[in-house]
User: Fold these one by one.
Assistant:
Number 1:
Amino acid sequence: MARQVSTARNDQRAHSRPSAPGVATGQASVPARAARAHAAARERNSVLGPMYVAPAFVLYSLFVLVPFGYALYLSFYSWSGAGSQTYVGLHNYAKVFTQPQLTESFVHAAVLLVFFSVIPIALGLLLTGLMTNVRIRGLTLYRTVLFLPQVLSLVALAVVWEWILGYDGPLNAILRGVDLGSLAQDWLGSFTWALPAVGIMGSWVGYGFAMVLFMAGAEKIPITLYNAASIDGAGRIRQFLTVTLPGLRNEITVVAVLTITSTLTSFDIIYVMTDGGPGTSTVLPAFQVFTFAFNDYEVGTAAATGVVLAILVFVIAVIIMRFRRSD
Amino acid sequence: MHNRIASATSYGLLTLGAMVAAAPIVGVFLISLAPPNSAVGGVTIPTHVSLRNLQQVWQEGDFAGALSWTALITVLTVVITIVVAIPAGYALARVPFPGRQMLFYLFVFGLLLPYASVLVPAYFEMRTMGLDGTLWAVVLPSSAMSVSFGVFWMRAVFGGIPRELIEAARVDGAHISVVIRRIAVPLARSGILVLVVLISLWTWNSFMVPLVMLAGSTIQTGTMALGAFHGGHVDDIPGVAASAVFISVPMIILYVLLQRHFIRGMTEGALNM
């Protein structure tokens, strides 16, 4: 395969380079023929291009764009999921911003951002910063293990963490073991601690991803930049701030966008670990979309919540992406 | 000296990080080997190791049935997505036509759109089409979401193939479909494999879509079976652990075999965004 590839490339080069002046001087008919062929190709492309995109576009339209349009429509109606739909104007949107179970779901998401996004990014940067200029043997193995949580279903990970955070679980056992038994409690059953407990699981899921991405990014930073900084008398911290951090700008923005999106749209973890409880202390926007539509039969409110969620994700993503390096 | 300290700290932190990542997963595997319904407290390692718990949960939760449905849904989703994303990705990368950029942005829109925003109307759409409760109610929306990433990814992969290779074939007068099949696809093999791996992973692990689309149906996916078993046996820690093991093992095997592709997909896919 590789050989075939390189021959083709050589043929092409051999063919095109010497012929370029030849075209200009000798054969007058060639440019005309080429132009005609070019026009024909363009015409063919304008038919073939759309034709090749069509199947993907139809599928995508039917089950993503059309339902999103339908969500926009439903967000202006009151509907139980059966029977008649009543136009209610912006009433559903007003509810998203005033009904406590909905407003608090966005507040909870904001709290969880610290755990799902800020902590993984901070841990990833800390480790990457410490590892600069250090050759690590067995990096592949470390990477494989660190990345493992990304491969598993959040439903499975949620039941694992429910066990860890349970009253008789390992976390409390460790606390009792180090004489902090008075702190031991049913973490997910506590109005105060349930949300941070879910957050800790989110940090656990996210930090390996951040580390793997940042370590890969750091490998691409030219060593000469560090040498230059070091000649200028920059210590390790200065090197981190002036070389590593700017060098990882793309990676950091990407991890931020992905972890923020996954916080706002979290469903599996909440459904399995807390069911939004105790009370409504762990409800999140995507979970509320589900609850309003299928438990409370307020489809319009669910649709409006979904639309607000989508807008929020887009706005945040666009803002963060602006920090990317443009190469 | 300085370097040795730095290197020791790095190894120490990396090892700690890896251990914290692995410990909960290893713990669950160990607990699934405890006797059925036994009380598992703290950080103990089960002393009586047996497969009885796994056998019992496998039957009681009908994991054979659930995982078969998941496998079927995953294969169908992957095949549909790949079949439509390859020509679309190629056309968007290599065939200039009016409106191409607009179409590309429409697909990118789906990358960011949370499926939770679409799920409720998609469910009612399925109900209108009479597909709710069938496996197509999961396969079609899953494929449509994957297509968005698939087109985006394949466009980048085909865009990365050296221009000369494709033009050489075009000069020979080969039809576009021949160029795709004979030249572009073979050169993009590893990129396609990454896509297969990622879509398999997402579809296998997805929960919200099947939960909604298959509500009240006889069809149940692996994640749903885990959710149901967990709901009915909250205090049976070895039982719940066993059900988590069942749905995780196939992905762990795939991950161990294709580790490089998983990581490449999830890092490059993200970075190209």
Number 2:
Amino acid sequence: MEFPIGLYIALASALFGIGAIGFLLRRNALIQLMSIELMLNAVNVALVAFNRVHPNTQAGQVFAFFVIAIAAAEAAVGLAIVISLFRLKKTVDTDSADELRN
Amino acid sequence: MSELLYERALLWIILLPLLAAILNGLLGRFADKDIVSALGVGSVAGSFLLALICFAHLFTGMGATEAGAQIATSVAHGNAYEWFHISLPTLGGGTHEVSIQVRFLMDALSGLMTLVVTGVGLVIHIYSLGYMKDDPGYARFFAYLNLFLASMLILVLGSSLPIMFVGWEGVGLCSYLLIGFWYQTPAFAAAGKKAFIANRIGDFGVIIGMFILVSVAGSFEFAEINSAAPEMVQPFYMGTWQMGTLATAAALFLFLGCTGKSAQIPLYVWLPDAMAGPTPVSALIHAATMVTAGVYLTCRLSPVFLQSPVAMTVIAIVGSMTALVAASIAVAQHEMKKILAYSTVSQLGFMFAAVGVGAFSAGFYHVFTHAFFKACLFLSAGSVMHAVGSHSDADIFKLGGLRKIMPRTHAAFLLASLSIAGFPLFAGFFSKDEILLGAAELAYAPQPFSANWVGWFVLIVLGIAATLTAFYMFRMYFLAFWGDYRSAGEPAAGDHHAYDPKPHESPDTMTWPLIILAGGAALAGLLSLPHEWHLTNWWAGWMSHSIASVHVVAAHVAEGAEAVEGAEHAETMVPYLTAMAFGLTAVFVGIGGAYKLYFNRSDDRFRDAMPRGLYQLMADKWRVDALYERAILGPIAGLATFVGWIDKTFVDSLLTWIPSQAAMFSGFLATRIQNGRVHAYGAVMVAGLAVTAWFFVTPHPDVEVEAEGATARFEAASGMGYAYRWDFESDGTWDAPAQEHGEGFGAERSPSHEYAYAAVTERVLLIAQANGEDERLVLSEEPQTLPTSILPAGWMEDPTADATPPSVRLEHGDVIMRRNSAALGTPQVPITQEELHLGVGDRLIIGRPGTDRTSIMVRGLVEATVEIENAFGNRAHERVEVLLNVPPDRAEPDAQARLTTQATSQGEVLR
């Protein structure tokens, strides 16, 4: 059976919103990284859904693959930063990363 | 040797000390002391040797041509180059290309000066080896000293004013550096600054004088300036005020420079303070060479000075007064170097007095002899200071009996003292006698010669000054070298003037230079033999190659035809005998007085013999320093305090503090964002995304309209998934169907529509305004009066009568305008009717011809509406006004509204 495009967009928006709220509200760097991943994958869902509506170039799916690749790189860099932060501060609380303040 | 080799040699005279200065200055402090000494002294010795070779060449070839032999570097041989060239306006109104070449020239005058500079320089360099032996700034000292020599040689050998000026400034700089050589002592550093500033004041005069000269001569070369000297009798205008002749202005400005460099009244005050420098510096720079640069310059440009009797008189008076004032100060001083410093100022005054009475050759002869005896005296003073262990100066009342302890120094000092006092057959006797002779010739010059008084004035003043010279020299000699050594006792604790109780003779490196210089001081006078009237002596004959040979008497009456005749009459014995009488009286009275008062005595009997106040004035240097302090420095300091106060209160508070607070506050605000919290950054990012999202979700029509006649062209902005529909008349029916515009990205505008209107909804009156924005009046059946505020100033037909502005109304679709008191018309023709029928597109001019006028226009107004729907299904309306300047019914009689669409990119009609 075929779902209308609106449902996919609603799903993507819901996922993105959860990710954004998580990113803004949580202080744990690992949780924030996971929130970012959530937002990226919400975008992927939307891209694939749009691709189904306009399938002639498959641009949506190709774009989704790029997003996945970027997300992998981002996760690697992000985790490295988290480890560095932990070594420096003995915590992964992002509020502790305030060396540039003042 | 060929000429080319002599040119090379001439260059290397300058380059050797320059290279040594650079090497010692940059690398000297890392090098061994012996290497520094070898470089410093060796380069000067080489320079002296080359100077001797060049001079010998000059000497053998001197009689060859009328102008005398000379060695000049030339561009053609690659030994000179063009520094720069400038385009100067000439007095005639045209322009003149002046090339300034770095060229050097050695002739009779500069050749002798070069010998003095390098010769005395060499002796003093050798002396410095001993004197500066233990100084931590050894390499620095030799670098400065060599740089000074190079600058002095550039000054002397430069063949044009700008090159000379490079040397002139260079010696000033080195003088500053060497006076302040022990800069850790604030007083010494201040003395350096004082010298530099006094010199700068003079240098300003040299620059002005240089420009005046080049404006006449069209060249900076000395030779060309001197040959152009006769043209300089033209009047000189400063603005509209005539300031004597060009020669007077140039000579006086140059002389201002000389008063700075050669320490004449009023700028002499720096020279006594300059004794803060090491003693060899005092001997070389502030006695033998640099301070005589002013005399050298006047001799160089003697034809120019001779053109101006006014300037010559000024120089003669200033010179002789300087000689007298400085000598009177010297008799009341206690320190050896102080006395010698004032003695130098005094002797420089003698030289300028000589120049002023026209005896250039005599003046320069005194430069030559003075270099020997004054350098010798300074070095002897240095030797004494070295012996008694004093660093700053030696008080003659604490010395005594040095004759037995320091026999060599004593002998040298005695010879040099006899020479400067003018004892017969010593060098100073001959040169001083020449000067007095120059003054006496002027004094005895026959009528109608009007400047006799100048000669008498100079003769008498110099006679007194010479007496004082002999007196203060032998006062110093008797007090320092005779009697018993007065500091033999144990020095009191904490007495910084304590002298070594057991003085000793200085080392050979210091005494040999003394002996050489003393020899010069004794024998240099032989150059002016035969010292007799009617026979040209060797010196004068030699100098005549370089220095203007115009007789002084002829110079002072250059305008009169009797000049030559008068000059011949002056050749009698009277002036010679007068000069000799003055000179001999001065020596014997001076020395005799000193012997009577001070021989084998230790107290200051001269002071006791003088009126108390007068002596105190002389000891206080006539309080000239205090006068300058009060009259010049005080007001300047006051002004500086005032300006500083303005800077602090006005600039720092109003102009600096307020903007700085504003910047700090905005910075404070900006740092609130940069608070270091990752979440705050995230929130800003999300907010930014939200704004961007809103922009994409909401359509933005942004319509542009272009009206031409009854047709208007419409375009709206394009965007992602935009679809448009148009209602060009805003009457509720869509004239153009909804249409999707392409992909959105790339195309800037929507497809454009051209719509030809068949009817207008409103009529408006536009009144042109000065700012380019037309004032708009929407017309109705009700009559409206045009407000006077938007009408041009001269709108009334009759400015004197009561004015009613025109009114306008609509009647059956026609525009009716009542003229009332306004002046109306087409651009060419005035309109006299009271009421006018106007249609859309008509244009009128309001205002009287010859006054401010402006145009009024009737336009048709319609409104168009566009509606946009984007990919998200959001819609936006925009309503735009269209002003048509041709009524649709007039454009085409049976008009029907018509739409033309031009798609700029592929469009897709949805409905």
